Amino acid sequence: MIDRALYVAMTGASATLKAQASVSHNLANANTVGFQATLSGTVAAPVQGEGFDSRVAASHRTLGVSAAPGAINQTGNATDIALHQDRWLAVQAPDGGVAYTRAGNLQLTANGLLTTASGLPVLDQGGAPVAVPPNESMLIGGDGTISVVPLGQPPSTLAEAGRLQVVEARTDQLVRGDDGLMRMPAGADPAPPAAGNVLTAGALESSNVDATSMLVSMIQLSRQFEMQVRVLQSGDESARASNSLLSSR
């Protein structure tokens, strides 16, 4: 019995540390534009291997990504966009593939390339990086269309310069990678393009992390870890006492 208690407490403490890391990651991104909180939990996992099925481990599991919408903040910036529910902006990932994000704080490089705040090229409907020509002003429409007034021309010369690739997919249909970007699962069909009004221009979606609940979770996990360590200490003391009694015979 002591052995089982030690095993459960040990794996539980390990899972709690991983859960604390997940909560810390959420808290660190409480002010990150378009960030969606990671959902995680602890589950019972039978230990596989030789011998009797008498051991059950506590295992930390990432359960997915929160689909709760973040607050929309008006900025008035021409390159800021807030994507509507279940809408994702296609970007070129560092590995060259297509990935999706809800971070709408876009920026223009000196060469006119439209990128995310982290420098990832934003893709157009054809899958090519969006390049905006020199202009007097730029406007992003609700359907993702980019319109510009050419440099040196009057406002009446407003012309279309491209269109953002915005796709439609539920959060649970996508998988978040280690780089924080969302992708379709391996072998799945590409996400379909979103039609109609897909975004709000001049606004940003804030992180959906609830900092208060995350802080409460961190306190609860800390107390849980302390109790698990106490179980380990108590089990060790009981084992020492049992060994002492046996050796005294």
UniProtKB/TrEMBL annotation:
<dbReference type="InterPro" id="IPR010930">
    <property type="entry name" value="Flg_bb/hook_C_dom"/>
</dbReference>
<dbReference type="InterPro" id="IPR020013">
    <property type="entry name" value="Flagellar_FlgE/F/G"/>
</dbReference>
<protein>
    <recommendedName>
        <fullName>Flagellar basal-body rod protein FlgF</fullName>
    </recommendedName>
</protein>
<keyword id="KW-0969">Cilium</keyword>
<dbReference type="InterPro" id="IPR053967">
    <property type="entry name" value="LlgE_F_G-like_D1"/>
</dbReference>
<feature type="domain" description="Flagellar hook protein FlgE/F/G-like D1">
    <location>
        <begin position="87"/>
        <end position="148"/>
    </location>
</feature>
<keyword id="KW-0975">Bacterial flagellum</keyword>
<comment type="subunit">
    <text>The basal body constitutes a major portion of the flagellar organelle and consists of five rings (E,L,P,S, and M) mounted on a central rod. The rod consists of about 26 subunits of FlgG in the distal portion, and FlgB, FlgC and FlgF are thought to build up the proximal portion of the rod with about 6 subunits each.</text>
</comment>
<feature type="domain" description="Flagellar basal body rod protein N-terminal">
    <location>
        <begin position="6"/>
        <end position="36"/>
    </location>
</feature>
<keyword id="KW-0282">Flagellum</keyword>
<feature type="domain" description="Flagellar basal-body/hook protein C-terminal">
    <location>
        <begin position="201"/>
        <end position="245"/>
    </location>
</feature>
<dbReference type="Pfam" id="PF06429">
    <property type="entry name" value="Flg_bbr_C"/>
</dbReference>
<keyword id="KW-0966">Cell projection</keyword>
<dbReference type="InterPro" id="IPR001444">
    <property type="entry name" value="Flag_bb_rod_N"/>
</dbReference>
<dbReference type="Pfam" id="PF22692">
    <property type="entry name" value="LlgE_F_G_D1"/>
</dbReference>
<dbReference type="Pfam" id="PF00460">
    <property type="entry name" value="Flg_bb_rod"/>
</dbReference>
<comment type="similarity">
    <text>Belongs to the flagella basal body rod proteins family.</text>
</comment>
<dbReference type="InterPro" id="IPR037925">
    <property type="entry name" value="FlgE/F/G-like"/>
</dbReference>
